[in-house]
Amino acid sequence: MSSADRLLLTLHIGFAIFTLGPLTAATMATPRYIRRGEPGTVRYLHRVTRVYGLLTLGIFLFGALLAHGQFSKVWLSASMTLFIVALVLLVIVERDQRKAVHKLELANAEQRPGTTPATPPPTTPAEGAPAEAAETVTAPGEGPATEAETGPGAAAPGPAPARAPLGEIAKVETGRIATISGVVALIWIVVLFLMVWNA
């Protein structure tokens, strides 16, 4: 093996070690944090998946250069085909992670309690002031409820809309990410077995 081939092999193995490990960990941990309803963590895992997914192209590039055009070998063609399939599946995972982050952020915004305006404390008449001075003029609509407002024809406030629990948000994306992540991890194992067996 020439020095150029040794360099290509070193880069090929180095990219495999430092990209596939974090990539697999990020994709397989994503469903857990989606169920917990943590959009910040899911957003970080999505970024890790995108960055390390792009870096895995180095594995394919240096492996193809190391093959010296001998793509007629069955094990080499099978490994490259499986690698391309894994990259396509990772694109689907990245898309589902992005959708899950969006849904979790919307759910958190809807479940955030609104702020109520502060009411001023009631005023009491000064000591010795006449009782008439203590009377305040109420604006229309601010006084006690009249019979017309509380009668049978008055509209009663409806119940608050039910909100889905955080575990049910992005349920489709969670199941798809978990399934595809397992398939991708299995593909990495098969490709590794083919490389080691035929090295």
How would you characterize the overall build of this protein?
This protein is an all-alpha fold and 199 residues long. It has one domain. Helix content is 66%, strand content 0%. It is built from 6 helices and no strands. It is elongated and about 65 Å long. It starts with a helix and ends with a helix. About 9% of the residues have low confidence.
Briefly summarize what is shown:
Residues 125-161 have a biased composition (Low complexity). By secondary structure, this protein is mostly helical. 66% of the residues lie in helices and 0% in strands.
Descriptive key words:
66% helix; 199 residues; single chain; mainly alpha; elongated
Please state roughly what percent of the residues sit in beta strands, choosing from under 5%, 5-15%, 15-25%, 25-35%, 35-45% or over 45%: under 5%
Could you estimate the helical fraction of the residues in percent? 55-70%
Average predicted local confidence, pLDDT: 80
The N- to C-terminal Cα distance equals: 12 Å
- What ranges have pLDDT less than 50 throughout 5 or more consecutive residues? 131-139, 141-149
Helix/strand order: HHHHHH
Tally of DSSP helical segments: 6
Quaternary state reads single chain
State the shape: elongated
Give the radius of gyration.
32 Å
Number of beta strands: 0
Provide the domain count.
1
Structural class designation: mainly alpha
How many strands, which pairing sense, and closed or not: the largest β-sheet? none
